[in-house]
Amino acid sequence: MDSMAVLPAYRGHKIQKQMVAAGENELAALGYRHLFCTVHPDNHYSLSNLLELGYTIIVTIRKYGGLPRHILYKSNGPAISALRYPGLDAHLLALPGAQKDFKAEWQWLRYRVGGKLFAALCTPGLQYGAYGGRTMLILKCEPLLAELYRQQFTDVVPGFYSDKRNWNSVYLDADLPKELVWSMCTHAYEQVFAKLTKKMQREITGIQ
């Protein structure tokens, strides 16, 4: 991403943050998985926006005729999933009534049915310890099955930023079989769909 600016009259409303998030979505759709940007160390507002979006300062050097610049990096989660598991987005959206949106504040690509979350894609920042820097698919899961998956696969861990009893995180830089990941997605959907009202279930399936 290149230069970005907000007119003075519109500053203070996190517009830059929204523009960066929109740009990330466009880059993800094109398959880009590594994002870099620069900001002057004294530009506290822009720096704050980028850090909130999950960027990490990797080095501070002089550029553009000797001006100090932070170089920031972020791994673009949805793009990685598209490279490692092509068709993942299509599989999730093919489930009856599934809808997708992007939660800019969390940097989560969310998949919901009946307004309820059943899956999400994200790349937590490095401040989140063991979860940091790795792109993951967060999935609803029946508690006993969730524990079984964790015991069998080291790249399936308790859900990030969610109820760890009922959610798993699947690292997408791993080599889990595609069929297994697809099955986990379908199970996550079924867990949420089953809790919807009968009326909403009928509206989604079209079965009266």
Automatic annotation (TrEMBL):
InterPro entries, per database record: Acyl_CoA_acyltransferase, GNAT_dom, YjbR, YjbR-like_sf, YjbR/MT2646/Rv2570-like
Entries under Pfam families matching the protein: Acetyltransf_1, YjbR
Domain N-acetyltransferase: 1-78
Molecular function in Gene Ontology: acyltransferase activity, transferring groups other than amino-acyl groups
Protein name, entry field: N-acetyltransferase domain-containing protein
Origin organism lineage: unclassified sequences, metagenomes, ecological metagenomes
